[in-house]
Specification:
By secondary structure, the protein is an alpha/beta fold.
Length: 185
Amino acid sequence: MKNKIVTVLTIYCLSFFFSGCNAQSSENKYDPNGIHWMSFEEAVKLNDAKPKRIFIDTYTEWCGWCKKMDASTFKDPSIIKYMNDNFYAVKLDAETKDTIHFHDKQFTYVADYKTNQIAIDLMQGQMSYPTYTFLDGQFQLIYNLKGYQTVEQFLPELHYFAEELYKNNIKLDEYLSKQSTDNQK
């Protein structure tokens, strides 16, 4: 009887320990002082209450450039502040096997592509990591930006989309070229 009690207590303690570790690691996945990353579903709920542009960082666990963005550009205070002020920021693992619910549709893992259908749709089948997708407050695709971005490259791009300059028929390359010229003066 004593052995059963010890065994049950040991199992209980181990399960409590491991569940505590998992909870803590998921809570600390992103820096609380950094970009307020959220799931796609969380962004949809927040957007329903208060519409805002959506920024989606589509990444994979094996992508070196994705990790470099996380370690550098996404840690920059000016990027963090601007992103948190102007966008709902979503981290989307392109290879997630979780079902993602959006409006009346379910996006599931597509084994042939080793990718979730939502990533395929957002990236319009042009799979490249990292990809940054900008959506308006009605979840309409504005633009997909691909590849690693330095802070100097990324901040003007964020401004372009947050300020909705694309609505004024200003092309992104023209805007960036003008920004570069203005910065050289």
